[in-house]
UniProtKB/TrEMBL annotation, chains A, B:
Catalyzes the hydrolysis of the adenine ring of phosphoribosyl-AMP. InterPro entries: PRA-CH, PRib_AMP_CycHydrolase_dom, PRib_AMP_CycHydrolase_sf. It comes from Devosia albogilva. This is Phosphoribosyl-AMP cyclohydrolase. Mg(2+) binds at D91, D93, D95. It catalyses: 1-(5-phospho-beta-D-ribosyl)-5'-AMP + H2O = 1-(5-phospho-beta-D-ribosyl)-5-[(5-phospho-beta-D-ribosylamino)methylideneamino]imidazole-4-carboxamide.
Amino acid sequence: MTFTAPDTLDHAALEEGTAFAPRFDAAGLITVVTTEADTNAVLMVAHMNAEALSLTLETGIAHYWSRSRGKLWKKGETSGELQQVVELRTDCDQDVLLLTVEQTGRGAACHTGRKTCFYRRAVVADGSVTLEDTGLPRLLDPASVY
Amino acid sequence: MTFTAPDTLDHAALEEGTAFAPRFDAAGLITVVTTEADTNAVLMVAHMNAEALSLTLETGIAHYWSRSRGKLWKKGETSGELQQVVELRTDCDQDVLLLTVEQTGRGAACHTGRKTCFYRRAVVADGSVTLEDTGLPRLLDPASVY
């Protein structure tokens, strides 16, 4: 699957047009926000290269590029927590993707075993800031999965 | 407001601890996903530097770093579309922030006048992909605001 080269589009076409021209960065990656279809909850933020994006669109299963491992990452291939694609959107200037999925398996998008990676909130007190656990349960035991 | 330096934390402290150690990138920026409190809708994705993050936490009004303009960006200062902070979360490895807000003004987080920047979806047909407008109305006229 091929995508339109962003530099072939003018500003109006990039922001209002029908050409899909993902603006991969210098490393060939684009930021992806993944949300859960039923709740709109943000599950994770990751990256895709062109191959991962193509595979995601072609197979209906989320594929990313793992920056830490430097390789294509079929989410859930090890853990069983595959993500089925419901919808893919892009933003106004096409440098971010919004992927809506149904999280399969035990429902743990995060490698810590929680539903979402965003399980801690910032709390400000006396001019300093700390994190507080929001209490999300672990849906799987990472030690037994990874 | 000061933040913990990520390199002073071990892996467990970074992922499970109470120290807030945002992992700003080489340019001093961290990716921020901004969602609407009532609906969980993803409104936009932007970046903060340490100053923008401090101001956001101290004032309760979202501040970002504009990469295109190379300056601090109090969201809505020009348009009136300020964002009131409801909650700020970080992810497992603290390199992304999730900001939940009440979008004030006319409710247009996107500079195109729409509620969200994610107003187009990808549609695959015959092996190629195009964008389709999801029909979000313009809540303000960009030409009269910016």
